[in-house]
Amino acid sequence: MNIKRIIVDSGIRMLNSGLTVGTWGNISFRDKESNLVYLTPSGMDYSAIIEDDVVVCDLDGNIVEGKRKPTIEKGMHLAVYKARPEVNAVVHTHPIYSTVFSCIGEDIPLIIDEAAQTLGDVVKTASYALPGSQELADNCIKALGTKSNACLLMSHGAVCVGETMDAAFKVSTVLEVTAQIYYMIKSMGKEYIKISEENIVAMEYFVKNIYGQR
């Protein structure tokens, strides 16, 4: 598996999907065998990044490969991997509707089936902290908890995680769609109808054990 290629392709994927603009956001992938983390470089155009630009470090943040400066959110990515050992991919996005809710500090509930199946838990908003700070990393971990696959960073964007890069991107997409639907419900002056905890558990089981090709 060429992890550097995965990082390069994922940067273009994030940009083309509308989940960020310009050089905002960042991506990482943890190699389960070596426990090394591959990160996007800081402030580079995703369409111009090549494999040699990818930075590799250990879980303590020591750079083991790469000449570029890594994303300033390196500490946040590493904190996620330490706190959630089942996670191998982290995608930090700047999507419009999710960020709207991050700016008002409002959590995004599981209002549609896809959210209940994918997001793991209510998407909480982490308390504000400066980009690249240890405080932001700590707040992110607290908001993610042990179950959720996404959280919002107040006035900043979203962090989405997964066992694979595809899984993390699916979380990113479902989160933004859910945020847009939630925004529209609120714009209508309405309240969403809550999905029962029993049905949420049933859908989680369905996705993990029944849905798709086995």
From TrEMBL:
<dbReference type="GO" id="GO:0019323">
    <property type="term" value="P:pentose catabolic process"/>
</dbReference>
<feature type="domain" description="Class II aldolase/adducin N-terminal">
    <location>
        <begin position="5"/>
        <end position="183"/>
    </location>
</feature>
<keyword id="KW-0479">Metal-binding</keyword>
<dbReference type="InterPro" id="IPR001303">
    <property type="entry name" value="Aldolase_II/adducin_N"/>
</dbReference>
<dbReference type="GO" id="GO:0046872">
    <property type="term" value="F:metal ion binding"/>
</dbReference>
<dbReference type="GO" id="GO:0005829">
    <property type="term" value="C:cytosol"/>
</dbReference>
<protein>
    <submittedName>
        <fullName>Class II aldolase/adducin family protein</fullName>
    </submittedName>
</protein>
<dbReference type="InterPro" id="IPR036409">
    <property type="entry name" value="Aldolase_II/adducin_N_sf"/>
</dbReference>
<dbReference type="InterPro" id="IPR050197">
    <property type="entry name" value="Aldolase_class_II_sugar_metab"/>
</dbReference>
<dbReference type="Pfam" id="PF00596">
    <property type="entry name" value="Aldolase_II"/>
</dbReference>
<dbReference type="GO" id="GO:0016832">
    <property type="term" value="F:aldehyde-lyase activity"/>
</dbReference>
<keyword id="KW-0456">Lyase</keyword>
